[in-house]
Amino acid sequence: MEERAYEWAKALCYYAGEDEAFLQNFWQMLGQSEGIYREYLYYLEHQQFLCAYKVAGYSVVDIMVWQMDHFKAQMDRGKDDMKNNGDKMLLMAFDTMLKMEQNTEYYVNLMQTETGTDYPGKYN
Asked: Is the Cβ–Cβ distance between 53 and 97 less than 8 Å?
């Protein structure tokens, strides 16, 4: 299963436009988190989220929803590279959750104070 999980991470990185360094860092962090690795494997097997593991009360779906708001803001600004890249959205949700596990306060603050669609000049 570990080999299949790594190959999937490699494919996600490829389709998300991430390089080998990103893949290696992602895989290393994933291997250090039993909870997130379990979520990752569940998604790989079932193509749906388990959401049993949370960091500071946030599941991978909560993180993905928060990030989608940022992706929408990028599209509003004419940067639509995320528009049709579900692999990148999924990868970034898992990656952010891994980073959130290591720097919880920082990411909780971002999730509670920063919304992607509210930026200066949006409604001008």
From this structure: no
> What type of residue is 20?
E
| Model pTM score | 0.84
For the chain, the structural domain boundaries read 2-113
Cα angle at 18 between 15 and 22, to 5 degrees?
135
Give the Cα separation of 37 and 67 in Å (integer).
Answer: 20
Confidence of residue 86 (pLDDT cuts 50, 70, 90): confident
As given in the structure block, the two tokens for residue 92 are: 């970034």
Q: What is the pLDDT of residue 121?
A: 47
Query: Do you know the residue count of the chain?
Result: 124
**Mind giving me the DSSP string for 23-45?**
HHHHHHHHHT-HHHHHHHHHHHH
CA torsion, ordered 34, 36, 88, 4, to nearest 10 deg: 40
Q: Express each pLDDT in 38-84 by its tens digit.
A: 999 999 999 999 999 999 999 999 999 888 876 655 555 555 555 56
